[in-house]
Design goal:
The complex is a heterodimer of chains A (about 400) and B (about 400). Chain A is α/β, with parallel strands linked by helices. Chain A contains 15 helices and five strands. Chain A folds into two domains: about 10-50 and about 195-390, no CATH class; about 55-175, abc type-2 transporter like fold (3-Layer(aba) Sandwich), CATH 3.40.1710. In chain A, strands 2-1-3-4 form a four-stranded mixed sheet, sandwiched between helices. With about 400 residues, chain B is an alpha/beta fold. Chain B has 17 helices and five strands. The radius of gyration of chain B is 32 Å and the shape is elongated. A four-stranded mixed sheet of chain B has the order 2-1-3-4, with helices on both faces. Chain B folds into two domains: about 1-45 and about 195-390, no CATH class; about 55-180, abc type-2 transporter like fold. The chains are: A alpha/beta (about 400), B alpha/beta (about 400). Strand 4 of chain A pairs parallel with strand 5 of chain B, so a sheet runs across the interface.
Chain lengths: ~400, ~400
Amino acid sequence: MTSPTPAASALRTVPAIVLTALRLVVRDRLGLFFIVVLPFIIILLFGVGGAGIATAAIGLAVDDGPEASALAEALEADAALSVERYAEASALRRAVRRGDLVGGLVVDDLEADLAAGRTAEVRWLADPASTRAVATEVAVRAVLGELDARLTAVAVAVDDLGVPRADAVAAAAETPEGRLLGVEEEALGDARFAWGVDEVAQQNAVLFIFITGLTGGVALIESRRRGTARRMLASPSSATTILLGEGTARFALCALQAALIVGGAALLFGVAWGTPTVVVAIVGLFCLVATGASMLFGASLSNPEQAWAIAPPAGIALGMLGGALWPLEIVGPTMQAIGRLTPHAWAIDGLRAARAGEGLGDVTSALAVLAAWAGALLVVATWRLRRSLTA
Amino acid sequence: MAEGLRAAATIARRDLRSRLRDRSALVTAFAAPLVLAVILSVALGGPDEGFETTIALADEDGGSLGEGLREALAGGELAEIVDVVEVADAGAARRALADGSALAALVVPEGLSESLASEAGGDLLVLRDPDAGLSGDLATAIAQGAANEIERGRLAVELAVAAGALPPGQGEGVAAAARARPAALALVDDDVEGGLSGAASYFGPAMAVFFVFFVVGAGPQSLLRQRREGSLARLAAAPIPRGAIALGTAASVGALAFLSIATLWLVMSLGFGARWGEPLGVLALAAGVTAAAMALTTFVATLARTEEQVSGWTSIIVFTLALLGGSFGALPPALEPLSLATPNGLALRGFVDLAAGGGLEVVVVPVAGNLAFAAAAAALAAPRLHRLVAP
């Protein structure tokens, strides 16, 4: 009987290690929750739930009066706005703070100011950091512009032409609509980033592949602590075979997570992932990055409790920085630059390109950065793990 | 009774001391919530690095409208945030958007001034890059400003005609008077506290509440571990009531939860200008959510058989509650009731209202809700509680 060549032995051992690792995951209901259920809850809550809110709720705090009613009516007539009246400016401010309203309008002396021909100040209460509030302000400004034109026309008739106020107001109501000068908007191309289920699914794929990778590293700590890997060295398996097996097992886990999210989101929510070659290349490389991180994590920490305490927050933190919880477009330049240091941002870039129908040639920089990350992490992790096995 | 309390106090002290030396407890109670709260606040709250954009102006018309737009762009605040590039025509403006040298464009089509003078009307064209929504909004607002000015003149003339007060040949004079009049309504920005300190006032409590569940969840888990390791059995040999062991452990994790919340409060206030509001209210909310978390995690622990199950189930429940409760961002308004059905959502609602300047009355419902939640979970746990402290 000849002893098997190292290559043949590796061929048998590696799949065995992979299968064992996957079997352990499937048997662990907790692991399954994080891998199978949680990503879809998030896509459902933030992707499907968050999409398609057509009108922006705004509040209006102004003392009752004819001009106030006209203001409320004009705002209400805008299809993009729904208006809620507030008696107290402080209650309105709180509702805006709380996020119940996109913004609020407060006018202190509307009737008195207009009657005296003074400019009535309309305060727009909004969180300046909210992009939705900025867009809503444009709609509000347009409505106020219309109203302002009407009020100005009345004032000119009263002040400059001596028309009695009541007559001027009556005439204003009869003046035909129809602006001379309109504004036509034209969007050039489709948005690369559009909030919705597609974007959230992409973010989640990246977020969860990485978190699954990190938590997969916990099993490695267990096996190091129990000495399983060391004992395997006593078998005819070489350290290389064992490392290859452990690495492949982590990769298989990440790939399983990726396949679940990509396939599940496509089936359940109709997410169109785009160019298949780009999706496979980007997701595959990112799984390698997660594998490297997983093995480095598993090689560096000494007890599973620490790992469980660190892995989810660390995965979430990197996801936040890299645009896997919100698009990097909404953060400032500094945070964007920091985000670019994470592999997450590049993976999301690549996935967006795939969705836009771009090919492999268009995502070379994303592929290169991910490959570099994967290479660096895998080399360092392998070196550390080998040392912990053979030292 | 007094002896039992003394024993509980001793256990609590020793337990807390050993927790403060345990690295995973320190990560869960301090490092992780702080890191996540800081990233969330800085990313979503600014710091405001100043919005700047480039808008292309294509004045094909060469009349007064283009002149007005040029003046609007060069005046006041706009001049500081907008760079204007003049291009020859709409085609050049499209190219500028395509190559990224401008983020939005204003086009005054040829002959527009003339067709306004002849009352035929027409449109200003705004070209938008869908990925630069803010710049597009700004360009639209500028165009609408110009359109409104024309509208003021038109309306004033129409109204004067309708009121029978237009002196013959005075149309242009009336229109000019209307255009020159100060605005009847002026929209002024009144920022609701947002930006960095606003975000820190939201995400500080959000992360504090999220991690409180992990911090107090460690209590029942440590009881299970002590039972496995046999230290509970040894304690049972001493004249200590079983309740004292549970009470001592609860007091220690409760104290750690308070330390965790207090640390976040301090760091977010001193470092990021957060204002959580009325201190008594903050303490009451912290107590309410800690009680709810303690009862809930204890209930989970009484159901599970092994420590792994407890920690697994606890993380599943905690992540789900955090997502629903808005710890990682508020849910869409339609799902708000779902949010308020969780201890996290209730507590966060209280924290937001407090930060918005609410008095103690705003925490009554959240605290009462969380205490009711705690009572319900405790009632469910009570019949099985002996399992946790039985030697």
